[in-house]
Write a structure and sequence with these properties.
Helix content is 43%, strand content 12%. The protein is built from 14 helices and 10 strands. The strands form 2 sheets. The chain has an 8-stranded parallel β-barrel with strand order 3-4-5-6-7-8-9-10, surrounded by 5 helices. Strands 1-2 form a two-stranded antiparallel sheet. Helix 9 runs antiparallel to helix 10 and helix 13 packs antiparallel against helix 14. The longest helix has 17 residues.
């Protein structure tokens, strides 16, 4: 099967599909905790003001969560992948969290954790640490009131108002001490959100590392784990090596995840990844291989997904959500390629053409005929 695609130099090239769709293993057992950060499906008919009034297709959004649960993944709900802070506001996130927690209760073994942040508090409106604490408390209270588990997301407001490491310690220790259950922390780098530059009170990684390790050490009984999203494997390993017993590392490194999950023979990372939304069938089969001790099989499946992930998460990294939703559309999980905030426009047609090719090569075009037909419609809109 052939398709004509645009190249960055302006040429048109003929591409012949080469991939064989990877069959996932329903009921597979994993030896790693695997959270997929899930996207939301917009409602293009109801969304009359895409930039400021998100509208969600709740049926399709919940159906996609069932898809992830069937493949053995836990869900990280209302996180960066759902466009929190980039078109998807707290009011919408509350409804998403409420629906997802209720839906999880209908699925035996389903698990999810939900993002608690401060995104309803504009950074400029935060004047004191108490303002930030109050915003976190509101979101924690909602999630825990619904019977959910919280992921403590990085806060733009805290980054704006904090004067140094002690301010971060005060806020995090306050929230951990009063949380009803264990919490997952999230260290999100400024490549994902420039407003988070200098998080933990320093631009120096070593100083930031000391701060977060000290916070975790004082409250280890309330921390399930920490997700680090810095796209730097060496930094993740350094944090992983310093975590106290009982606190796990969740890789958020969408560039280097296969090796970090496999481990170095001493320790390994679990996963909380946005790319798992897009590569769920292959990640399912690979994690099943790893659980069986088949490292060669794991590597063979995971390796082709890395060029795809690096393309989707290329700079400007915060626009990776467009590639995630693009793949959901190619694979029939939604009927349109429209996103909250119109974010499908954040990437160009050549980017999507490369994602299409790399998806094929990774065995991730579940129905190649459908994917080709949909890719052709997008190309036509772009004048190709």
């Amino acid at each position: 099967m052939d398709i004509t695609l645009p190249a960055a130099n302006g040429d048109r090239v003929s591409y012949r599909l080469v991939g064989k769709p990877v069959e996932p293993i329903e009921g597979a057992r994993f030896s790693r905790i695997a959270y997929a950060a899930a996207h939301v499906v917009a409602d293009p008919i109801a969304m009359t003001d895409p930039w400021s009034r998100p509208a969600v297709d709740w049926n399709r959004t919940m159906a996609f969560r069932h898809h992830l649960w069937r493949l053995g993944f836990r869900i990280a709900e209302a996180m960066d992948t759902s466009q929190r802070g980039m078109g998807f506001d707290w009011a919408s996130a509350k409804e998403l969290i409420r629906r997802s927690i209720a839906e999880a209760k209908t699925v035996p073994g389903a698990d999810l954790a939900s993002g608690a942040g401060t995104d309803h508090l504009a950074p400029a409106a935060a004047k004191t640490l108490d303002d930030v604490i109050g915003a976190y408390e509101e979101q924690f209270a909602f999630i825990e009131g619904e019977g959910g588990k919280a992921i403590m997301m990085a806060s733009r407001a805290l980054a704006a108002v904090a004067k140094g490491p002690d301010d971060y310690a005060r806020v995090y220790e306050r929230m951990l001490s009063q949380a009803s259950g264990k919490v997952i922390l999230h260290w999100l780098g400024d490549m994902f959100d420039p407003a988070l530059k200098g998080y933990w009170g320093s631009n120096d990684f070593d100083a930031a590392l000391d701060t977060v390790v000290a916070i975790i050490g004082r409250h280890a009984g309330k921390v399930e784990g920490i997700k680090i999203s810095l796209l730097d494997a060496e930094k993740e390993v350094r944090l992983r090596d310093r975590l106290p017993d009982g606190v796990v590392m969740f890789t958020g490194d969408d560039f280097n995840y296969p090796a970090l999950i496999a481990g170095d023979g001493r320790k390994h990372s679990h996963a909380l990844l946005g790319i798992f939304d897009a590569i769920a069938p292959v990640a399912n089969a690979a994690l099943a291989k790893l659980a069986e001790g088949d490292k060669v099989g794991y590597d063979a499946l995971m390796a082709p997904t890395v060029p795809l992930s690096r393309k989707i998460f290329e700079a400007p990294t915060e626009y990776y959500k467009a590639g995630i939703v693009f793949m959901a559309w190619l694979n029939g999980h939604q009927d349109h390629f429209t996103m909250v905030g119109g974010m499908q426009s954040a990437r160009g047609i050549c980017h999507y053409a490369e994602v299409f090719q790399l998806s094929d090569q990774a065995g991730l075009l579940v129905e190649p005929d459908l994917a080709v037909a949909r890719m052709k419609t997008l190309l036509a809109v772009a004048g190709v």
